[in-house]
């Protein structure tokens, strides 16, 4: 698809706010690369890499996302689960599909036409990536946050997406985001059933989707049918600044200091960003960089970490 053709994603770009949740529509439901046979082939190419992640349908909203695969292993391999996801009782993620030449073209075909619209309000787009989720009926994606802006597109089946505002600290505290940006640590991002009352709820079917800003908490539940979803993620100059301030805040906490609430003291945030930028160049405290390679590499495509 060339940039001159109609964009795959349709959104109200005049109303677009990079820090606010927004519904969208898309035209990917019949794309050849998103049909079962091609997903199985992609799964085969991901064997022996870190580019797939799977767990079984016993996972709940409150399961620790990072431990789900070890605590709830699938009965079949990821490839076999993809082959018959409706009966697999599994959740399979194909990560960083942009690392595959065929799927990199798909990522570009989606992002390139809308990049000018995004950058009108959120300049400096970089670190684009793609993720494909296949889930059996009645399967949950645990409550978590992500380190990029997310365009989530439903391809097959139906699901319910619960997503909370990026600044809702009652659901996910500043400290939880600090830990996440510093070490991809979700131990402070904890689920409570009471959160459902505060959520934006989207009942997604094929051709629909939702835009979710950086670290917007979210949780997903499939219906009585299996589901295929694809997400396109990216970072910008603003997400980079946000993440670096959170990294600096976490470093201060570890030194016994308590920084002001995020976004409440602009002088502190500017100083924290400058300090974190210098530290990241030196690869972080003790020679270890923060969790997300996007803070080290302002590359066009995400690094398959």
UniProtKB/TrEMBL annotation:
Pfam families named among the record's database cross-references: JmjC_2
Ranges for domain JmjC: 98-251
Name under which the protein is recorded: JmjC domain-containing protein
UniProt organism field: Dyella japonica DSM 16301
Lineage: Bacteria, Pseudomonadati, Pseudomonadota, Gammaproteobacteria, Lysobacterales
């Amino acid at each position: 698809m060339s940039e001159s053709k109609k964009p795959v994603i349709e959104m109200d770009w005049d109303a677009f706010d990079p820090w606010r949740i927004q519904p969208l529509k898309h035209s990917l439901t019949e794309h050849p690369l998103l049909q079962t046979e091609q997903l199985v082939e992609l799964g085969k190419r991901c064997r022996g890499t870190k580019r797939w992640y799977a767990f079984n349908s016993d996972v709940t909203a409150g399961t620790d996302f990072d431990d789900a695969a070890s605590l709830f292993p699938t009965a079949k391999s990821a490839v076999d689960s993809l082959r018959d996801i409706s009966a697999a009782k599994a959740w399979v993620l194909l990560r960083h599909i942009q690392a595959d030449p065929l799927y990199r073209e798909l990522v570009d075909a989606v992002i390139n036409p809308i990049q000018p619209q995004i950058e009108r309000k959120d300049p400096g787009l970089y670190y684009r990536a793609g993720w494909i989720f296949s889930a059996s009926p009645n399967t949950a994606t645990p409550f978590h946050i992500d380190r990029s802006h997310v365009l989530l597109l439903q391809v097959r089946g139906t699901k319910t997406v619960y997503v909370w505002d990026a600044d809702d600290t009652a659901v996910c505290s500043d400290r939880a985001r600090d830990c996440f940006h510093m070490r991809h640590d979700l131990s402070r991002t904890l689920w409570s059933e009471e959160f459902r009352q505060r959520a934006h709820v989207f009942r997604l079917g094929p051709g629909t989707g939702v835009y979710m800003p950086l670290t917007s908490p979210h949780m997903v539940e499939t219906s009585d049918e299996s589901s295929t979803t694809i997400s396109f993620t990216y970072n910008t100059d603003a997400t980079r600044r946000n993440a670096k301030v959170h990294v600096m805040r976490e470093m201060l906490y570890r030194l016994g200091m308590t920084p002001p609430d995020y976004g409440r003291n602009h002088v502190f945030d500017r100083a924290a960003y400058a300090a974190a930028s210098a530290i990241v160049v030196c690869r972080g405290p003790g020679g270890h960089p923060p969790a997300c390679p996007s803070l080290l590499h302002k590359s066009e495509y995400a690094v398959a970490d």
